[in-house]
Amino acid sequence: MKTIPYDKKSKLVYTPVDTVERRKNLSYEEFVQDYASVGKPVIITDALRNWKASTKWTMDFFRSQYGAAEYLVIDYKADAGMRERHYSYMRVDDYIDYITSDTVDKSLYLSEFNAWNHPELQEDCEDLIYFKNWYRKIPIKFLNKYCGRISSVLIGRKGSTAGLHYDRRCDTAWVAVISGRKQVLLFSPDQEKYLYGGQVDPFNPNFEKFPLYAKAKPVECMLNPGEIIHMPPIWWHDIRNLEDTIGITNNTLNEWSYDLVYRQWVLKLTPVGGHIFPILVKFPWLCRLFC
Q1: Rounded CA separation 286/263 (Å)
Q2: pLDDT tens digits for range 15-61
Q3: pTM (2 decimals)?
Q4: Residues 192, 242: Cα–Cα separation, whole Å
């Protein structure tokens, strides 16, 4: 692991873009130079070609293997150009039945399926050279207790969305699509002042209620099956399922996000735990003392 000065002040590096580049045969060195080190998103179009999940993960697969499991589902109800988040628990098989039903008054999204609790699912997704992840050094029990989900299977009905947000730990994220298509809206960190804390629905904004949003500059792109998008820390985003979709998302802790994550823990999440956090990253066996 790279040694990091833990008292270093976090300096966000990002590059505003008009479009998200699509890259094939991208080397790790190119990824670091052109995207990770300068805080710039990118879509990698051929990263999933060796994943077992690409052919294995279907609605029938999740129904048969995980149908009885219950997970939180999100319902983002649009009302006058803004969205309100509602949560409920639902069995996986019931959710897949819902996807195929004619129900139109809701747009539920099963986006809380903790993939790291299922090592067999992780084995279906080959590690990618682009996304070193120091979270992997930390025991899953500790992550679940103090950090929340690091990786989630995403099963979404057409029209569903997780809403406008940025990842609150300030780590780096990627989203991979196994089946279906997703519409992505990205906002660089300097756009936050126009986003009303994520209350606005960027796909159908109410400018009377959220007039500052008219100044926002969303960057739109599409994610197709077999593609993955890299989202740097603190980039706001909303992702809408254009079709019934299956995908997976992962948050990563590495040299590009460490300082931001550390300061987020210290300043907002838990000051005491934040100061302990660097020690736990460096000596993950100590996590057993907190579980």
Answers
A1: 21
A2: 999 999 999 999 999 999 999 999 999 999 999 999 999 999 999 99
A3: 0.88
A4: 25
